[in-house]
Write the structure tokens for this entry.
Amino acid sequence: MAISDVVTQRAFVRAPQRGATTRLLEDERWLAAALLLPTIVLLGLFIAYPFAEGVWLSVTDARVGVPGTFVGLANFEALWDDSIFGTAVWNTFVYTAVATVFKLALGLWLALLLNRNFRGKAFTRAFILLPFIIPTVLSTFAWKWMFDPTFSVINWTLFQFGLIHSRINWLGDPALALISVIIVNVWRGVPFYAISLLAGLQTINPELEEAAAIDGARPWQRFWHVTWPLLLPVTMVVVLFSVIQTFADFQLVYVLTGGGPANATQLFATYAYQIGIGTGLLSQGAAISLAMFPFLLIIVVVQLLYIRRVEVH
Amino acid sequence: MIEGAKWRRWVYFYIPLSVFIFWLLFPFYWMLVTSVRPDRELYRPWMAPNYTPFWTAHPTLEHVTDLLTQTLFIRWMLNTLFIASVSTVISLFCGLLAGYALSRLKFPFAGSLGTGIFITYLVPQTLLFIPLADIIRNFRLGDTPWALILTYPTFLIPFCTWLLMGYFKAIPRELEECARIDGATRWKAMVYIVFPIAVPGILSAGIFAFTLSWNEFIYALVFLSSAEEKTVSVGVTSELVRGDVFYWGQLMAGALLGSVPVAFIYSFFVEYYVAGLTGSVKG
């Protein structure tokens, strides 16, 4: 009796009750929708909507507090004739290209140095990242102070070594200002390249290099024919991120020169800020920063295609 | 290692590495020296014979105390701490859920949504700040911490999602399936099985997100206007430069102290930070 009772009872134990929400969330599609909802709301409100709003602003004549009316492409036509805008576009390209080349070269060099075994390696690696993690604006002030023509420690050092005889006005001289700004950008970016490329280097099997060494390859040949091709996919992604950030850079120039002297360091973002926020011409400012978009798009598409090709190989 | 004579090690290794370290760290040393240097030494031209660049004979804490007592510096630090913490928590929450959905679940448009989030990852802040300023004004969020708390996740969520997707993909599906056979719902399997395993990823994403929001500048510059609401970067930039006068001692003290929280967190979690950095690139 006892045994059959237990068996029948067990057979009719019900599955635990689940509420309507729980059952709905058991469906993969509903669960996915619920999980993605907060992200989509936030990104929609503060990325997609501002983008549409930016496009709309750029075809109106809105100012701060004045809604503005539709004016077609007048803002972009005005930019086309604006020589300062032309300077800003040129500067942005020079700034991005030169800074990226130096960051890549120096970052790769530093990564190769750090890839060796030496005492205090972890310590060194941790300290080297400081320029990248410290708030850019704050560390840029240190550079601005170092570049100060009257109190500059750089000038003092160069003078002591007999390399200069009069003071150098690093940020005030239109011919030098862009170079100075690039130096600071490279300083800030090198750690990022070095640490990312170091991570890439550490995934490469050291036996490959050893095999090449046994076959008689010189250090330079080993790097060029073994290490570099294997590092290329990581390098391309690092360059992609860095190029976008450099192209759209704002804070560094804002602190060091504010776009001056005589617009010698004016970039897309600083010019957009000056026009859109400084003088309150929202529509013009929106048009300037939106003009960055096609360039960024081309850069991203070209690099992504290249990355895909490299990864297929 | 480097083969050959000892001098080769010096030329190819020690000297270049030392130059790199000197170049990368000197500005921080310069900040430190400037912030303890008295004004009469600070404003001595470099041509002057008694210019002593690399040390000071009369260190003073005057700039630091001025900064802490006569400016709103402490207020700015607390503002930044609050904004960075809350936006990090929001971004981690959204990134965890979205990352799980995109890496584990099958649903329509999964691929295009993933691509969409990757593209927003590549949108720089300077592209959208002008229309965003307009929108913030319309939502009546201008000059409040919420203007930043709600906009910072736009660049933090894509990054957190991307990083966590990598971690989730590495966790075997069988673990979850076991839990579900034992009667756990999908939700419970996610929260109690998958999330705890992904803790290193969550830490990396969180630390990286916190430093990114601590360092953000242009949104804070544009969306906040009153001195009491500012973040450290903006406060130091706009309030310690009055007209054309730079208060260099206070500026450098502010730059140094404003960097301390990030450097502090970083020093404890270097490995997680590096994992976040490299993970964000590799994806």
